[in-house]
Structure formats: structure tokens, C-alpha cells
Amino acid sequence: MKGWLGKFLRVNLSTGEVKVTDYDEEFAKKWLGGRGFAVKILWDEVPKGADPLGSENKLIFATGPLSGLPLPSSGKMVVAAKSPLTGGYGDGNIGTKASEQLKKAGYDVLIVEGASEKPVYIYIEDDKVEIKPADHLWGLPVDDLEQKIIEKHGKNVGILSIGPAGENLVKFAVVRSMEGRAGGRPGIGAVMGSKKLKAVVVRGTKDIPLANPEGLKAAGKDAYTSVRNKELYPTWMRQGTMLILEWCQEVSSLPTYNFREGVFEYSKQVDGNKLESMKVKTLGCPLCNMRCGHSIKDKNDDLSELDYENVGMLGPNLGMQDLSEIGTLVRLADDLGMDTICLGGVLAFAAESTEKGYLNALKWNDFERTKELIKEIAYREGELGNLLAEGTVNVSKKLGEETRKWAMYVKGLDTSAYNCHLNPGMALAFGVSEIGAHHKSSWVIYWELQTNRESYGEEKADKVIELQRIRGGMFECLTTCRFPWIEVGLELDWYPRLLKEVTGIDWTLDDMWEIADRVYAMIRAFWVREFDGKWDRTMDYPPPRWFEEPLTQGPLKGAHLDKDKYDQLLSYYYQKRGWDERGIPTKSTLEQFGLKDVADELEKVITLQ
Ligand code: PTT
Ligand code: SF4
Which of 4, 210, 484, 587 could be bridged to 490 by S-S, CB 3.0 to 4.6 A? Predict the structure, then answer.
């Protein structure tokens, strides 16, 4: 095989055993890499009903055939596990030097099994793999931890780690990487904490076998040049994802006061233009020539990297009006290792619950209290910190059924920063996203607003699937950053072309879509199995607020989603995917993707159609 190494590195933290297992080209072609590998491993190896924070869960760090190679924005990898927040499939995509280093060490995937009794870290240097004590590192916030690791192992290592939130099993703890990046929104950092694994440190020195090294060198160079020459490149380099904030305000889709509104009266104080005026540095992932980690000096004079999601959720959604204060909240979340989206979600839920008399937590735009509360959550301090560390879904269940009205989640995962009172396509994208309400796979909102915003027609289901194939399928499996394509316009055709130079296999985009559809069917099967067949279409509904509480401000005042029309749109989606009216892949769909064994296992928990 070229491009793939055919090797999974397995480290069992219960027994201390380190093992390398092989896979063949048939497996590689069926699952491609990244997310495809991750879901297949979790399906095969994590027993049904396993406790996500127990030793039976597995923690997967998966590269794909394009990860870590000299081509645009390839410094990415997938981190995955059964999620402690949702109980279903969970993953995230993280920018990290570890993607290149793991491959150079000779492995496509690191699978962490079992759980250690004492804090440890895994050190990988080619064939040398060690489980090292980490008592001296346990408790450290991420910045200090990385510093200590660099002092010991030098700068040329990839580091994947958790902060105190992961150690304390905060249900939305993330995995952090050295470049100031974070991934694994549905609590993958808590899974790492449950294994007492503080960090993975990896260095590799081997060559990655390539089908056509010279061809890749030339094509990679051309692709980098093409990115740099795109018309949108200079605009992107000014604000990165923060460009979106101003647009979301214009189209009444900015999450404001716990998604109650779509416009924020102070948006200009926290948007991309404001960021641009305060920018001091640009950070980013390795192997990228369009780095988007635009950073400012925050309220404490520390460097804070601002992305749209971070600012949307910890800014307008909490009524915060000052970008440097928001920067401090983002930096705290990063250093303590929590997902900013879920954190913003649970804090906004707590603020609204306070307003309504269910809690005594915080007020809107309350910087000092919010800062304290973030620390209380990460350390599970006090009754309130401990409660909020469970995530919006669980807090809402605890406070009572009626609080579901303002709990902004799907399948347990907090909604990312797009208010959908009048975006039915985007609401569908949140509803059917593979990990709960995340925008990553089908950011259909931009297209939706350029076409027929109010339509619930089947063209929206088509577009959601098209984007899922590209983003949630191809990019998550390859595994590279999707921004060169979606943000500056690098043509999709580049990817099969680069893949051919790497693997020697002449794939078309249609071949990619087939793999993507298989991965989607498998992820859905995983959810249904883990929910023991207790599954129906309501799992794919967006938060009730968007149906039941119209916007009260801005040009779209009065707007809300229509439940019956949404149901029709959802049915279109299911039909096009070959799933039944409950949202479960039919037997023939599973068989069509070579997943008869999956169908047989699913039949043990539910009758398939
Ligand atoms: C991603 C989600 C996002 S999506 C953002 S900002 W975005 C938030 N970033 C966080 C952060 O930072 N710190 C923190 N403590 N929590 C955070 N939670 C949020 O996590 C991210 C970029 C971005 S910035 C996006 S859209 C793109 N996402 C990609 C993707 O999903 N796949 C892919 N093939 N390419 C992508 N490129 C872009 O990468 P999750 P990152 Mg990410 C600091 O992690 O779990 O997938 O959730 O990883 O390395 O930080 O890069 O406006
Ligand atoms: Fe990372 Fe941004 Fe570059 Fe993508 S565009 S690889 S998220 S720095």
C-alpha cells in the first residue's frame, strides 16, 4: 500500500501492552481514513452499551491518506470515541503536528484502550512506544503542560493533551493540540481523562511511502500556489472565520441571548472588523498557507485566538459586548480544555434559567462572574460548577422538563453558532449532523440564504447531503482542512488528483461520495445500537425554541420554523439517504454499502425495514 501505512498502534493503559495491528488495502478503500477508520473501529471494538467513561471505550486518533503531507492544510487528524455527552458517536477534527509525526512514526491510527490507574502520558518515537508517569503533569492547564513537555522532549514533537476539564471529566472537555487548536466537542477530552491519559507526545522520522513522490511534490506545490492566488485569499487572511460574524448579524442568524434573537445590538464591538483592528498575531495549523488563527491581546493582556464559533457562543450568546473580555473567556476555555461551543451553550442556558428563576448562576454580560464560573466548571467546584460540567442536556433534565424549551441542543450536543429561526436547511443540517448539533458537515446556511431562504423543498435535503458528502465524508476521511476549498475556492477536483499521487488509486469524486455515504450509514447504525434501538425521528429535530418562540427583534421579527414542514423536509432527507421514516438505514441500504454484518447486528436491537 502507498499513502496508508497499514498499521494501527494500540496502547492498552490497563495492561501496559503495546501492539501494532495491520489492516489491508480492502479496508483502506472501504473506509479511507480519519472518521471512516474511527467509526469502523468503534463499531467493531467497543461493546454495545459501554460506559463512555469506562475502560471499555476506546480513544481513537486517526489520520487519513492525505494527513501530514506537503499539500494544502493537511496538518489535521480526527479524534473520536463514544461520547460521554451524547452517548452516541463523537468526534472532532484537530489541527496538529501530531498528524504528520504519527504517520512518520509509522502508524495511521493510535488506538488507546483500557484505562490507567495513575496519570500517564504516551511517548511515541518511531518504534519506541512508552507509557510514562504523568503525576507531575496532572492538574496543569494546557499552556503550562505544553511548556513542560517541550522542555523535556523538544519542539519537534506533536502534542495532544487535556487540561483540568478533561481530568475532571467535564462532559464537553476537548483534546488540545500544541498549535492552540482544540477538537472533540462531544467530550473526547473527558474520555482521555477517564483513561488518566494527560498527553500523547509523538515524533516520527520515517518516510511515508508514496505512489508518486515527485508527482505529489509538484501537485502539492501547485495546489499551494493555487490557494494563494485565489481572489478570496487576501480577504480570508484579514479576519479568517470571524468574517462570518458581521454576515450573521446582517441575516439575523447570530446566536444572541441563548439563541433567543438573531441580532445583537453590540455586534460591531465584537465582529471581524474589530478583531482586525486589535490583531497582534496569526497562528494556525501545520502545513497551512492560509493560517486563520487570528489572535488579540485579551483583557488580561494574554494572547487569545478568536474564531467565529468561539466569539459567537461566548460573546453575543452571553450578551458580552467587549471583544477583549470575550478573548479572555476563550483563552480560559482553551487553557482549561473545554469546548467553547458547549461552554457558551451551557452558560447561556444557565443565564436564562437564572432569569426564569430556576438557578442562581449568572447574568447576561457578566464578565467577572462568567470567568469564575468557567473555572468552577472545569474543576467541578461547588454544586453549580459540578452541575454545569454535565452539559446543557443533563442540566436541563435535572432542572425539569419545562426547561427543554430553552435548552439548545440536538442529541445532547449544543448547537453551534447559527440561529435558525428562519433557516430550515441549516436547522436540518443541525438535526441530522453525525455528532449532535454541529455545523461542520453541512454548513448549508450560506447557500440557503443565496437561494430560497424560506423553502422547505427537497432541494434543501439534496444540498445537505451534498455538503455532508464533501465535508463530513471526504474531508473528515482524507483527513485535511476543508477551508482551502470552502473559504478560498480551491477546486474539489484537486483532492482525487492529490490522492492519486499519494496512493496510486484513480478515484473520482463519485467514489468519494460512496465512501461518505457508507460512513454516514455506519455512524447512524452506531447511534441506534448504542441507544438500544430506542430511536425515532424526534432525535433529528432541532431545538424546540426555533419552532415555538418567534424572534422578537430585528428585520426577521416574528420568524420561526414550521414543525410540519420540517417533518416533510426530514422525510425527504431520509428517503434520499435510503433510511426509513425513523431515520434508520434500511437493510438494503446497509447491504448496498457492504454492511450486511452491521444490519445483522442492528437487527438484534431493532427490526430493520
Ligand atoms: C470544532 C469547533 C469549532 S469549528 C470551533 S471554531 W470553527 C471551536 N474552536 C474551539 C477552540 O479553538 N478552542 C476550544 N477550547 N473549543 C473550541 N470549540 C469549537 O470547536 C478548527 C478549524 C475551524 S475553526 C473550523 S470551523 C474548521 N473545522 C474543520 C473540520 O471540522 N474538519 C476539517 N476537515 N477541517 C476543518 N477546518 C477548520 O478547522 P471540532 P481546530 Mg476543531 C481554539 O474541533 O471538535 O471539530 O469542533 O479543530 O484544529 O481548532 O480547527 O469557526
Ligand atoms: Fe488550520 Fe485555519 Fe489552516 Fe485550516 S485554514 S489548516 S483551520 S490554520
Answer: 484
**Nearest CA among 575, 92, 509 for reference residue 339:** 92
CATH number of the structural domain spanning residue 319? 1.10.569.10
Ligand 2 center to 241 CA (angstroms): 10
Say if residue 163 is in the same domain as residue 17: yes
Name the domain count of the chain: 3
User: What is the predicted pLDDT for the residue at 450?
Assistant: 96
Instruction: Tell me the three cell numbers of residue 303.
Output: 494572547
Mean pLDDT, 10 residues at a time, the chain of 609 residues: 97 98 98 98 98 98 97 98 98 97 98 98 98 98 97 97 98 93 97 98 98 98 98 96 98 98 98 98 96 96 96 98 98 98 98 98 98 98 98 98 98 98 98 97 96 98 98 98 97 98 98 98 98 97 98 98 98 98 98 98 97
Residue 99 alpha carbon to ligand 2 centre in Å:
14
pLDDT at residue number 478: 98
- On whether both 30 and 93 belong to a single domain, the answer is yes
Q: Which of 73, 440, 476 to mutate for ligand 2's pocket (most ligand atoms within 8 Å of CB)?
A: 73
Helical spans, DSSP H, in 286-412? 308-314, 323-336, 340-355, 367-378, 382-388, 392-399
Ligand closest to Cα of 292 equals 2
Judge contact between 220 and 69, C-beta under 8 A: yes
Nearest-10 crossing angle of helices 563-577, 509-530: 120
Residue 221 included in any domain:
no
What is the model's pTM?
A: 0.98
Report the atom number in ligand 2 closest to the C-alpha of 240. Answer: 2
What is residue 514's predicted lDDT score, i.e. its pLDDT? 98
Q: Please give the Cα distance from 483 to 487 (Å, whole number).
A: 5
Enclosing domain of residue 461: 419-489+508-609
Ligand closest to the CA atom of residue 442 = 1
Q: Could you tell me if residue 446 is inside a domain?
A: yes
Pair 557, 474 in one domain: yes
Q: 10: which strand partners?
A: 19, 111
Show the cell assigned to 105: 512514526
Task: Encode 11-40: b = buried (16+ Cβ within 10 Å), e = exposed.
Answer: bbbeeeebeeeebeeebbebbbbbbbbbbb
